[in-house]
Amino acid sequence: MAAGNWQFGLVIFVYLSLVLNEPNILAMAIIRIKNLLVRTIIGFNPEERVNRQDVIINIEIEVDVSRAVSTDLPDEIYNYKAITKAIIAFVSESKFNLLEKLTHEVLQLVMKDERVQRAKVEIDKPRALRFSESVSVELEARR
Questions:
Q1: Domains in the chain with CATH codes
Q2: How far apart, in whole angstroms, are the C-alpha atoms of residue 137 and residue 121?
Q3: pTM score of the predicted model
Q4: CB of 88 within 8 A of CB of 38?
Q5: Alpha carbon distances (Å) from 88 to 37, 106, 133
Q6: Tens of pLDDT along 99-132?
C-alpha cells in the first residue's frame, strides 16, 4: 500500500513539474505599423484612374508571440517586415475604385497568418475632399 502511494505521488510530482516549468502562458502582442505611405491607383473619377495617389496605411495586429518569447528565436516571430513588404507590393500594384475594397484586401492579407488573432486596418486618402486633410476607412477582423 505504501509503495503504491509513493509511486502515485511521484507521478503527480513529475506531472506538476512538467506543467509548471512549461511556458503555458499565452503571450499576445499588439504590433502597430504606422503611417505607411504607398502610391496607388485609387478612385473612380477619370483622373484618379490614371494618376497614382498617396494612401497612408495604419495597421494594428494582435498576434500570438508565445513561442517567440519562450524561445527567443527569430524564426518564431511574426515577421512584420515581411507583411509590410507584401502590403507595399500589393497596394502599389493594385487598382481599386473604392477605399473600402482596398482596405478589405489589405486586411485579408494581414489575416492570412494563423497567429493573427485580430487585425485592424485604416487607410487614409489624403486630399480626397476639399477642406479636409483626408478621408479614411477602417476595418477590423477577429478569429
A1: 26-142 (3.30.1130.10)
A2: 8
A3: 0.79
A4: yes
A5: 8, 10, 22
A6: 999 999 999 999 999 989 999 999 999 999 889 9
